[in-house]
């Protein structure tokens, strides 16, 4: 028989447990670089979209990646007016990949959604990511069905993702940027990846977990221009390959074999002519030039490939901090 006191205590704990069963929190990680014209509208839209899910609590982490156009003032305003907003202010521009890294480092939610702040990743799709997560997926990638970027960007991205998939062991999902949801566990694991040259989508794909894709149509940028000029795109592309594959290093060996084979054929030809037709001097200017330039080119290329891996090793060995935060701005602070 339970004593009345015990039963009261028991009930008391139960009520407390109910209270303590926390509401599910979803963190949004939102990198921002010079988005003065669009960022306010973006936040309004996102806030409207998440209002349809009152069963969850939300947290919006804006990472100001060294904007120079007054974006920070707008972000501060957002934080002042919305208690769910936090602003992480970098000391300079560290790039998109590090901005999302800082956001994920700080996110405290049960799920973390990373998305761009230029309306190219439609906020309403993030709800579909949440649904897939509630359905049991631990990582949900938003995959582009169509996109509205320039023909050049569409073409190069299309080819790149297929090439990357071909030369890495990691199953990197096709046509997927950094718009995705990570379960709390996946986010925790991702925080342990501290490499500097980051290709976050590859790191996520390499982690395993139950992964799923949600398709979406990528809109045009709401305002302003892309903050990914060609050189940044190229650097990211190189980081993707060197971070997840040693295929370029193996290419050097193949190149070496090809050159060696040609050299042996050349030697055989020259010696053969010397023995069989000593009366003819092989006129060799063209041959020499071709061989020299070909060899020189192959060597430079090989050095370049080696260099990019050595450079990577060097910058990792330095072990410097990935980014420096000037301040974190919360609702009740200035
Ligand atoms: N971004 C950033 N730092 C950068 C470049 C871009 O935080 O150095 C942000 C930018 O504000 C946007 C997202 O990353 O929210 C994607 O950038 P963008 O739209 O310019 O790239 P695209 O969509 O053209 O590939
Ligand atoms: Mg964009």
From TrEMBL:
**Matching Pfam families:** Glycos_transf_2
User: Keyword NAD, does the record have it?
Assistant: no
How the protein sits in the membrane?
Multi-pass membrane protein
So which domain of life are we looking at? Bacteria
Q: Which residues cross the membrane?
A: 255-276, 288-310
> What cellular-component terms does GO give this entry?
plasma membrane
Q: Where in the cell is it found?
A: Membrane
| Coiled-coil parts of chain | none
Where does the Glycosyltransferase 2-like domain lie? 27-190
The keyword Transmembrane is assigned to this record: yes
One GO MF annotation is: glycosyltransferase activity
What InterPro entries does this protein map onto? Glyco_trans_2-like, Glycosyltransferase_2, Nucleotide-diphossugar_trans
Give UniProt keywords alphabetically.
Glycosyltransferase, Membrane, Transferase, Transmembrane, Transmembrane helix
Q: Which family does it belong to?
A: Belongs to the glycosyltransferase 2 family.
Protein name from the UniProt record: Glycosyltransferase family 2 protein
Source species, please?
Streptomyces himalayensis subsp. aureolus
| Phylogenetic classification of the source organism | Bacteria, Bacillati, Actinomycetota, Actinomycetes, Kitasatosporales
